[in-house]
Amino acid sequence: MIGRPRRSWWTAVMPSSRPRPPGPRERPGWRRRLQSLLSVHSLATQVFLLQAVVIILLVVAAAVALVLQARYDSYEDAHNRSLGAAEAFAYGPGTAAALTSPDPAAVLQPAADEAARGAGVDFISVLSTDGVRYTDPEPELIGKRVEGDISRAAAGEAFTETFQGEPRDAVRAVVPVLDGNRRVVGLVSAGIQVANVGELLDLQMPILLGSAAGALVLATGGAALVSRRLRRQTHGLGPAEMTRMYEHHDAVLHAVREGVLIVGGDGRLLLANDEARRLLGLPPDADRRPVGELGLAPGITRLLVSGREVSDEVFLSGDRLLALSTRPTAPYGGVTGLVASLRDTTELRALSGRAEAARERLTLLYEAGVRIGTTLDVRRTARELAEVAVPRFADFVSVELLDPVLRGDEPAGLGAMRRTALSGIRDDHPLQPVGDAIRINITPMSTALANGQALLEPDLAASETWGSEDPEGRRQALEYGIRSLVTVPLRARGVVLGLVNYWRSEDAPRFDEDDISFAEELAARAAVAIDNARRYTREHAMAVTLQRSLLPRDLPEQDALGVAWRYLPAQAGVGGDWFDVIPLPGLRVALVVGDVVGHGMHAAATMGRLRTAVLNFSSLDLPPSDLLARLDDLVLRIDADQPPEAEGERAQVTGATCLYAIYDSVSGRCTLAHAGHLAPAVVDPEGRVVFPELPVSPPLGVGGLPFEETELDLSEGSRLVLFTDGLVEDRQRDVDEGLALLRDALAQPGLTPEETCVAVMSALLPDQPSDDIALLVARTRLLDRSRAAEWDVPPDVSAVSRVRAEAGRKLAEWGLEGSVFVAELVLSELLTNAIRYGTEPVRVRLLHGRTLIVEVSDGSSTSPHLRRAAATDEGGRGLFLVAQFSQRWGTRYVSPGKIIWAELSLGGELPEPVMVFDEELAW
């Protein structure tokens, strides 16, 4: 492995293309950055520095050359300008004549100054042939001889030179002045001071230096880009490291005895070493070609193209068995693709085949544990056993169970057996269909059942026992292609439940001894699940039977409400939901809905006890709050009587809720109270749905808290909908969502109670109810005012006859002439006793419904009792007569006082006489 390269200064400045390993990384500080800047160990940095030095040298040389060229050009320009100015003045008209004049200086000085300014030179001097100045920009020099050799000009030759001497260094030109005879009559010297020539050069230097700097920056930037590209390609490695890397690269390509492939993200082969080329038989031009065009095995091609990461996955390539491992290159190589390593494992082919078969068997056993026994249904569990083994272990699987197991009973021995499940790779098999009775005396099945062990028939065609009892069935099976069989008894807790048959056709290898253990293991797991389902079936059947015996089979007849109901037990087991409709005296009806928490026998039994208690408490005609209070005490006693499940454990606490409502069809008033139950829905005749606010109350069994009542005035035709939480709440929705759905289903005016049940169940019934569902819909009726009569009675016995006569006339008005005698007799006895033994106010009410109801109320709370009158007693037989002539009678307490009531049959029919012997108390 090549060592980690040091980061150069360029690496610190420019972003690196090398991917960072995952995980947090600290940001480098200034010291680390400085070290990176000074590091020159990477090849890219060294190349950059070399390029930078060469560029600097080239730029400096170019700059020097440009400066020298500029200097030369400046002097050359000075020479040319000086020569031009001198020639222009020497050859100018009048110059020769002025030199021959008496005072050449006076004539030529102004002209020389003006010509110097116009030519852009520093001076123009006119000289005699021997070098004496006639004119000069500096007057003190006039008349003095010039420095230097001017003999060439005196001889008639013009020349230029760089003069160094007094009065100053200059670039000057000396030109002879010729007269008309071509004789030299004087000299003209023009020039530019060397200092002024340097100023011209200084003006050009910024441009030269700027150009040099720009060229240096551009060249350095180009070198930086080249170095950055080189750094990406070399990943910041130094020369020694790159040398080692390429040595390792050559070793991998040629010396390593494990195949290595690198595939790019586009599916093309980037690299293959010699071993990979040998193992895969790659062509010489395999590099840069798509993997799909290399003629590899299909499985290997799919793996390399997919980019999937695997470890030691085995593929067959020709006559070799290759183990491939692939890893993505992106986190390490910076490019998308994968690297694959492959090893030749041909010598392990047989061993790997057995290991693969064992792995497949373990996988199948795991799947069997997950897929078998998903439900507590015997037939479904048998089907799951048959389906899980096909086709990975057998071509056909049949499951036969004893008839008691299908019913949920404990099998007492080997008896009738029925095919419960059958699964196969084809549907046109000759095996007996599901539901057929199976003969248990057929070998080898009978042998396996008798021994309790699996039996193998590897070759059915050569078997002497199989099919001997049914030659025609044997022939059909062999012609179809069934060739091998393993029969395994299904045993759980030492009891045989049935057997399972595994069949293979001629297209599959025959069963051998290695398959028996797996078949037994699979059957053992399925047998436990089947036995659990059988036991659950038995308990479920018992719970259903108990529940059906405890729930009302039919609703009683009554005039106050039109009622419809639905009850649906939970799919997972019987629960403790219940409902009831209880007729009460005075054309009143009690509606009850309750829910016991939990499922199974305990919940069903508790529900039966609570329903019976509600029926008994209702016979006392208690208000809803008092009835729930007594029911709460009962639940507390039930919890106290339960023994703990184990030593040191507390007894199971009964959780239950209840809603109890009493509807009076005379007043249209509904009084209700609840114990932790959901409020009912009230639907008026126009379809408006309201969930009334009920006082908060605890469930039954908490104790110590009172229950409050709520009164509702319901118009005729209103619907009162009572339900349990299983209707509006399940695993897929909460209570609020369920109540919203219920509101929508109920918001349809004019529905009958039966139609309301259908609409509600269609909208809210889940596919697989996890809890019991109880729904009770009651539509209110009001008693016609004309069928009720009421009188206030003064506390005077003489008023009895008057009230009796008025009641008789009212009965005649109702067409109940046949009931007048019995009604007058009962009314007379009840009213006389109320006046004698009760307190004011005394009232009488007659109600004409399904029966004739006579009610006498007074302000006393003393309850009357039947008594056995002696033969010598003059009185004490009035209440006995009331009991004999009425269908039912009783007392209910109101505020203030009580009401004595009696129900009489219409038409004057008298009930069967009833003898009473043990009554001791009277009014």
Question: Brief overview, please?
Answer:
The chain has 923 residues and is α+β, with helices and mostly antiparallel strands. 40% of the residues lie in helices and 22% in strands. It has 25 helices and 30 strands.
Task: Walk me through this protein's architecture.
By secondary structure, the chain is of the alpha+beta class. Helices cover 40% and strands 22% of the residues. The chain has 25 helices and 30 strands. The chain has a six-stranded antiparallel sheet with strand order 12-11-10-15-14-13, with helices on both faces. The radius of gyration is 61 Å and the shape is elongated.
Please tally the β strands and state the result: 30
Q: Please report the number of helical segments.
A: 25
Fraction of residues in helices? 25-40%
- Helix/strand/pairing category: alpha+beta
Mean pLDDT: 79
Q: What value does the Rg take, in angstroms?
A: 61 Å
Q: How far apart, in Å, are the first and last alpha carbons? A: 113 Å
% residues in beta strands: 15-25%
Spatial shape: elongated
Oligomer: single chain
Q: Main sheet?
A: 6 strands, antiparallel
Strand order of the largest sheet: 12-11-10-15-14-13
List keywords for this structure.
923 residues, alpha+beta, six-stranded antiparallel beta sheet, five-stranded antiparallel beta sheet, elongated, disordered C terminus
Write the layout of secondary structure elements.
Blueprint: H1 9-13, H2 30-38, H3 43-90, H4 95-99, H5 104-119, E1 123-127, H6 151-154, E2 159-163, E3 170-178, E4 184-193, H7 194-234, H8 239-254, E5 259-264, E6 269-272, H9 274-280, H10 298-306, E7 313-317, E8 320-328, H11 330-333, E9 337-344, H12 349-371, H13 378-389, E10 396-402, H14 403-407, E11 417-424, E12 437-438, H15 445-451, E13 455-457, H16 471-480, E14 482-492, E15 495-505, H17 513-550, E16 561-568, E17 575-584, E18 588-599, H18 601-619, H19 624-641, E19 656-664, E20 669-675, E21 681-683, E22 689-690, E23 710-713, E24 719-723, H20 725-728, H21 735-746, H22 753-764, E25 773-780, E26 788-793, H23 799-813, H24 820-837, E27 842-848, E28 852-858, H25 878-885, E29 888-893, E30 898-904
Antiparallel strand pairs: 1-4, 2-3, 3-4, 5-6, 5-9, 7-8, 8-9, 10-11, 10-15, 11-12, 13-14, 14-15, 16-25, 17-18, 18-19, 19-20, 20-23, 21-22, 21-24, 24-25, 26-27, 27-28, 28-30, 29-30
